[in-house]
Amino acid sequence: MKHVDLRSDTVTRPTPGMRHAIANAEVDDDCYGTDPTANALEARIASLLGKEAAIFTLTGTMANNLAIGAQSRSGDEILYEAKAHPINYEAGAPSAFFSVQTTGIQAERGLLKAEDVNAHIRLKTLHQPDTVLLSVENTHNAHGGSVYPLEQLHSLAHVAHERKIRAHMDGARLWNAAAAGGHSEKTLCEPFDTVSVCFSKGLGAPMGSALAGDSATIQRARKIRRRMGGGWRQAGILAAGVLYALEHHRERIIEDHRRATRLSTELAQIHGLVPMTPCETNILMVDTHDSPLTAFEWNTRLTERGVLQNVFSATRLRLVTHLDIDDESIDYAVSIFREIAGT
Ligand SMILES: Cc1ncc(COP(=O)(O)O)c(C=O)c1O
Question: Looking at ligand 1, which atom is closest to the CA of residue 61?
Answer without folding.
Answer: 11
